[in-house]
């Protein structure tokens, strides 16, 4: 049965009307139950209209006044990286906030590097979530305070990074694919190798970079050819919120 408020969009994209016209909000979440919960929250606590879809690839037409809430709660690490990589293909670029499982600094940096304007996790309170969403919609960049503290306390790691010479050509090709958010199956197809071979390369890469996971690989490998992404911390307007900053480097290039 179709959703009573379904509109002429992809089959799983639905729209709800808010009290008054305002900034449109699009909720992107694979799980239909979670997507509907986020949609109801958006319509009850914000102005304008809210729509939902399962993936950024199903995103309805957007404008620069649109706020996209990208939830990766239902995605695996590989799926989340692939979804974040799609952010760079959205035109015109809407304001985007990522809703994640935890305040992992590497995941925050990866989201920002792919073009997101903010990141918040389910460890935050609901009021903080609403404030962050409004702040991003108003042009700000939101990062959890815990991540700011972690970034400031982290020692300079440039000297600890493995030089590019320690990687084989195949490993460098795999690194480039990981930075673009591609899963192992796609990497194997594009590089004409078995998926099991790709997994071996990924393990070797993680060992050489001292990376904990694929997201960590994407962040640390960026330092092989470009300056590391750093947060520009300004005076907060709201608690745990930052002033707008310059767009960070794109790891997907």
Account of the 3D structure:
The protein is of the alpha/beta class. It folds into two domains: 14-152, Response regulator (Rossmann fold, 3-Layer(aba) Sandwich), CATH 3.40.50; 158-224, Arc Repressor Mutant, subunit A. It is built from nine helices and six strands; from the N terminus they run ββαββαβαβαααααα. It has helices spanning 32-45, 77-85, 105-113, 126-137, 145-153, 169-179, 184-191, 195-209, 214-221; strands spanning 14-17, 25-28, 49-53, 67-71, 95-100, 118-121. The chain has a six-stranded mixed β-sheet, with helices on both faces. α7 packs across α8 and α8 packs across α9 (214-221). The protein is globular and about 55 Å long. The termini are far apart. The model is unreliable at 1-13, 17-22 and 225-253 (pLDDT under 50).
Compact summary:
With 253 residues, the protein is of the alpha/beta class. It has helices spanning 32-45, 77-85, 105-113, 126-137, 145-153, 169-179, 184-191, 195-209, 214-221; strands at residues 14-17, 25-28, 49-53, 67-71, 95-100, 118-121.
Descriptive labels:
253 residues; alpha/beta; Rossmann fold; Arc Repressor Mutant, subunit A; 2 domains; 6-stranded mixed β-sheet; 9 helices; 38% helix; 11% strand; globular
What's the assembly state of these chains?
single chain
Total separate domains: 2
Largest sheet properties: 6 strands, mixed
Uncertain spans, ≥5 residues at pLDDT below 50? 1-13, 17-22, 225-253
Helical stretch count?
Answer: 9
Let me know the number of strands: 6
**Secondary-structure element order, N to C:** EEHEEHEHEHHHHHH
CATH fold-level label of the largest domain: Rossmann fold
Measured as a percent range, the helix fraction is: 25-40%
Outline: globular
CATH class of the largest domain: Alpha Beta
The radius of gyration over CA amounts to: 19 Å
Q: Structural class of the secondary structure composition?
A: alpha/beta
Instruction: Determine the N-to-C terminus distance.
Output: 42 Å
Adjacency order of strands in the biggest sheet: 1-3-2-4-5-6
Q: How would you state the average pLDDT, rounded?
A: 76
CATH superfamily of the largest domain: Response regulator
Strand content: 5-15%
- Per CATH, the architecture of the largest domain is 3-Layer(aba) Sandwich
């Amino acid at each position: 049965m179709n959703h009573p408020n379904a509109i002429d969009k992809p089959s799983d994209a639905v729209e709800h009307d808010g009290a008054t016209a305002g900034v449109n909000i699009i909720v992107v979440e694979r799980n239909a139950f979670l997507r509907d919960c986020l949609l109801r929250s958006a319509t009850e606590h914000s102005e304008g209209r809210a729509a939902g879809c399962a993936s950024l690839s199903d995103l309805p037409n957007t404008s620069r006044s649109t706020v996209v809430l990208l939830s990766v709660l239902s995605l695996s690490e590989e799926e989340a990286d692939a979804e974040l990589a799609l952010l760079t293909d959205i035109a015109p670029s809407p304001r985007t906030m990522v809703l994640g499982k935890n305040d992992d600094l590497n995941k925050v940096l990866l989201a920002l590097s792919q073009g997101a304007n903010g990141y918040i996790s389910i460890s935050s309170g609901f009021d903080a979530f609403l404030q962050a969403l409004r702040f991003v919609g108003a042009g700000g960049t939101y990062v959890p305070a815990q991540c700011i503290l972690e970034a400031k306390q982290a020692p300079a790691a440039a000297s600890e990074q493995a030089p590019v010479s320690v990687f084989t050509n195949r490993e460098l090709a795999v690194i480039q694919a990981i930075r673009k958010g591609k899963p192992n199956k796609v990497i194997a197809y594009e590089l004409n190798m078995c998926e099991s071979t790709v997994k071996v390369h990924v393990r070797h890469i993680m060992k050489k970079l001292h990376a904990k996971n694929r997201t960590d690989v994407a962040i640390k490998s960026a330092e092989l050819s470009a300056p590391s992404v750093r947060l520009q911390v300004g005076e907060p307007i709201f608690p745990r919120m930052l002033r707008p900053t310059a767009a960070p480097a794109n790891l997907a290039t």
